[in-house]
Amino acid sequence: MPRTLIRLFLDTVEKHHKPAQFMRKTASGWESIPADRAALDVERLAHGLRALGVQPGDRVALVSENRYEWALTDLATVGMGAVLVPIYPTLTAEQSRYILGNAEVKVAIASTPAQLDKLRTATAGMAHVETLIAMDPSPPAQGRERSFADVCAQGEQARAAAPTAFRQWVDAVRPEQLATIIYTSGTTGEPKGAMLSHSNIVSNVESCLQVFDLNPADTSLCFLPLCHILERMAGMYAMIAAGVTVAYAQSLETVAADAQDVHPTVMTGVPRFYEKVYARVMENALSQPPLRKAIFFWGLKAGTEAARLRFERRPVPAGLAFRARIADRLVGAKVRARVGGCLRFCISGGAPLAPKIMEFFYGIGIPILEGYGLTETSPVICVNRLGEAKPGAVGPPIPNVEARIGDEGEILTRGPHVMMGYYKNDAATAAAIRDGWFHTGDVGQFDSDGFLRITDRLKDLLVTSGGKKVAPQPLEGRLKTSKWIAEAVMLGDQQPYCVALLVPNFVNLELEAKARGWDLSDRRALLRRPEVRAIYQAELDALNATLSSFETIKKFDLLDRDLSAEAGELTPTLKVRRKVIREKFATLIDGMYHTGA
């Protein structure tokens, strides 16, 4: 019988009693938190939440960066049978308000004073939000506000009075019970709340642990947002279940420095992180004196050549194997030392990983296991295995997960990992899960070895290389309300940021040009004028001011003609064919990514 999420944690505590179950950076250095203390902290917080009126089934929102208290809140909430609703700390108050309202949250917990202030704005007038809890010290608690420390202290008193109560709550939680609601970006409207049960996530944990070689000697550096189901399942619950020590990076910017302190053996990341590491290593190599630079590129060439042969399941000739061993000592080991020197492998998900990035990491001795999945599938469907990886492929399905190719080449999956449905959205649930199969909206194919390759998307949702999902259509619609813009096409799939191609409203623009005395004889020259670009930059600035940073449009270019159905750029019903646009205007689009962010 599947376990519950809280059982994964408590079983590990009882089995390993690790002196360092979690690690965090404090003002005095890295602190190791023993498993027994963590279990006690979870129990205290659960009692504190119960004292605030949280009952099984109630929703508890969490707005926080990665930290020890994130795990405590998650474990305490699901351990007492309540439902955790994680909210990205980068979301605006308006975006957070929709989630808090749709989920009918009872208690909301914030990390910093800034996040608490955002919650105050987001929950204004919401009677169902009874309590706001602040992790970090902030102005004295008043009204419905409480400090995290006070809630835990109150919980300790309640625990002392009823020492067996928490275990009774734990025993009452059933595997099929709702554990969390995770809101995903929709393609045309408000986000949808994917409902994941304890058994959904536990099944994914246990299947992945049959694939990944993890053990209590390992240390994981946690930096991918825990709001992301990949980090929560693979970087938290799977690590806990395997007895791995989980260390929390201070921020994405400090990952390299933190890694040198804690010496992680495994990490979970998204392609954008690995791209940044690659870029920094290459930038550093190119700045070296000629001899060192030559040695680096010689070593990298030997390492990647050997890696490619292994990818192709071909033997590595003795001469190349000898060069690769020398190259590893001269190059690979030095690069690995910059991330702690102990990495056995990394996991990548959330967006496609470029084959050249994967080859680079294998070439320097850090295997990356790329996988594929969605929030709705808890999340992993497929993943590469150590020693059997293929660049450009996401591996075969994990144990107990079925996947097949349906109509129009769409990837379908079924099994215990598929969500319960979308919260309060029966229509979306019925559209996504048909005859027991979840429809991913992605197009792919299986090769002769059973490895899945993602080839396209049925839906227009953009997924940046950082794993962030952006719904372009609502934003394009807002841009087209401007008197200056006739058409807007957002792009950014598998890229580090979003850009836009804009078709001006030429009638209004040319009227403005006449009024200002600008030359109208050459439309392309007109569109290059700084004054014209400033008009459109102002429109983007106004839109960007209302968005989360990952949604903002960093660059734009102007097209000198309208899009048309005749040219294949629009459907007969005048919808944009995004794939055709990407191909037809590839030069313009590439220019927006290769001239600096």
Q: Can you give a write-up of this model?
A:
Helices cover 41% and strands 21% of the residues. It has an eight-stranded mixed sheet with strand order 2-1-11-10-12-13-14-15, with helices on both faces. A five-stranded parallel sheet has the order 4-3-5-6-7, sandwiched between helices. Among the domains are: 1-173, ANL, N-terminal domain (Rossmann fold, 3-Layer(aba) Sandwich); 471-593, 2-Layer Sandwich (GMP Synthetase, Chain A, domain 3), CATH 3.30.300.30. With 597 residues, the protein is an alpha/beta fold. The protein has 21 helices and 26 strands. Helix 2 (35-51) packs across helix 6. A hairpin with a 5-residue loop joins strand 20 and strand 21 (452-457). The model has no long low-confidence stretch (mean pLDDT 92). The radius of gyration is 26 Å and the shape is globular. The two termini are 51 Å apart.
Outline the secondary-structure elements.
Layout: H1 5-16, E1 22-26, E2 29-33, H2 35-51, E3 59-63, H3 68-79, E4 83-87, H4 93-102, E5 107-110, H5 113-122, E6 131-134, E7 145-147, H6 148-161, H7 165-172, E8 178-184, E9 192-197, H8 198-209, E10 219-222, H9 229-241, E11 245-248, H10 255-262, E12 266-269, H11 271-286, H12 290-311, H13 318-337, E13 345-348, H14 355-363, E14 368-373, E15 380-383, E16 402-405, E17 410-414, E18 421-422, H15 426-432, E19 433-434, E20 437-446, E21 452-457, E22 462-463, E23 469-470, H16 472-479, E24 485-491, E25 498-504, H17 506-516, H18 523-528, H19 530-544, E26 553-558, H20 578-584, H21 586-593
Parallel strand pairs: 1-11, 3-4, 3-5, 5-6, 6-7, 10-11, 10-12, 12-13, 13-14, 25-26
Antiparallel strand pairs: 1-2, 8-9, 9-18, 14-15, 16-17, 17-20, 19-20, 20-21, 22-23, 24-25
Helix pairs in contact: 1-3, 2-3, 2-6, 4-5, 8-9, 12-13, 12-14
